[in-house]
């Protein structure tokens, strides 16, 4: 690859190296300048520039509003050379009370709503800073933070804000960079300060102790946090995890024993309109059979009305079905990936984030104290110069009137500095009053006292930490839990109890016929009155399994490698087409074949066996597999395959091998196991198991011969009754030649 160096020269460079270098530069730029928040003020560059530009425009809370277009123009022209719409979107979010726990911008006009409607254009809306934003900016003019040049070099901007407010945890943050992402939920400021104050006293506090103060996220939209305490502690310890949030609901009783469920709060970042649309779609698809209708009666507050199918529906079961199927329950991920004070992106724990905020406030206190001290020293220098004027007033006046360079004379005669000399020359005549001299002496005394206190503060870390503690307590009072903005909104609830939510609760019960072909194509057809001649298959395919079932049933599939699979009938494709390959629904494997398909009965027991005659009894509830990979139950000898899976319906077992030897023995001789190889059922030399059935000895053994059934009485088959693992004898006359019962 040839690159033009910019001076007319062309240099050779491999495409791989050139691409790697440029992509790395892009990645670093994205991480540092766009996507990840700073742990100290919790802001990304665009948000920091917005607040600083609004401060420069003097948009304080007590001032009037200004058009957002003016603000966006200033930010884009002076600090942030990116698209105006992106800047406006960032501004809008900082003003949305349903997006930000503690809004940093006070908006006037249409700033969007929880339904997902967009804000009005920037030329129609106005904004100003909130008190919270002022807390973030407080002290920025006291040399408390570093400034850097703007993109065009015409001005300067703060690298970070002083942040007398724990914005990172209070308002949260989210962003996707190159190879990393950040996702931090909002928290309650009262709880953050309680944890920070404890950390000031106990620097080695455990995460468990800190979580006793910060009980979990506090979302602006409220809701109920139903995560286990152990999971919350682990998430804050690692800086990664997730939180389970549910909608807040209540039952409203109506006449005649009827009721309806009222949703008053929904999970954070869930759009109400899309939520209602999703529930309506599920209703239309008959996937919410416990719900009759949903209505939106919201005004300023959220009020979603859910009507149950009938008054006998349990509200808990109704809501559990909705939590599982809709965004009435959601998960908010925690990934505290932030840029630390050394400008390195990394994932921090809760303690590290709190400590970083404390350390930042400590540095701000030191820098602002030094700034005040320097100002006091400069002011004292000027005041001491003024005092010389009062001591030598007549001489000063004479020198000013007669000397061509009075400044030099001042410096020689009284050893004054340039600053003192300039101040004396700039004095007004009315400042020479006696009262002015008294006020200067008083100011010198006060400044010396303040200077002493600041020096003591700078020399004593313990006093600085006490000052920070007092700051935290002062801000905490502004956001106490008795105020509207300070009160916790997200309720800390208990983890939900395990509830039986099988298909019968969430799927409408209908009769269907499950059709599975020889080549594994499966489909369902409504009703049980299906005739075999009505079925059509792909060319070269034919009938294998036809099962009458209900849409609420589960199918149990046993395959030749000893695995069981489970499929919900309601999840199978419907219609009168050819269906879909069952291999798309389960990991069947190329060499595996389906041995049997049964509707699931948890109270039933099965006999399973391999073709070499080893098997056992297994409770059907133990073979249910909830994954596509299935559940291995029968372990096979080398070269063997599964061949039998049949429900137990009797007290004896009849087996016949491919060598046409029949053996009958009591079921009690077979062990019940959850998995394994099993025991020998019948002994073979150069043959294999042909078929197996169970029956009641008193009722006799029924077999299918041609187009009719024949039953051998217990007396007729007594000589074939023996012990497990015997070889057996040739069957009686009239037994089917197919060796199948």
Architecture overview:
The protein is an alpha+beta fold and 741 residues long. It folds into five domains: 36-165, Topoisomerase II, domain 5 (Alpha-Beta Complex), CATH 3.90.199; 185-234 and 348-498, Topoisomerase, domain 3 (Orthogonal Bundle), CATH 1.10.268; 248-327, Gyrase A, domain 2 (2-Layer Sandwich), CATH 3.30.1360; 509-595, no CATH class; 601-741, Neuraminidase (6 Propeller), CATH 2.120.10. Helix content is 32%, strand content 23%. It is built from 18 helices and 36 strands. A four-stranded mixed sheet has the order 16-11-10-19. A four-stranded antiparallel sheet has the order 12-13-15-14, with helices on one face. The longest helix has 42 residues, at 350-391. The relative contact order is 0.06.
Q: Keywords, please?
A:
alpha+beta; elongated; 5 domains; four-stranded mixed beta sheet; 741 residues; Topoisomerase, domain 3; Topoisomerase II, domain 5; Gyrase A, domain 2; four-stranded antiparallel beta sheet; 32% helix
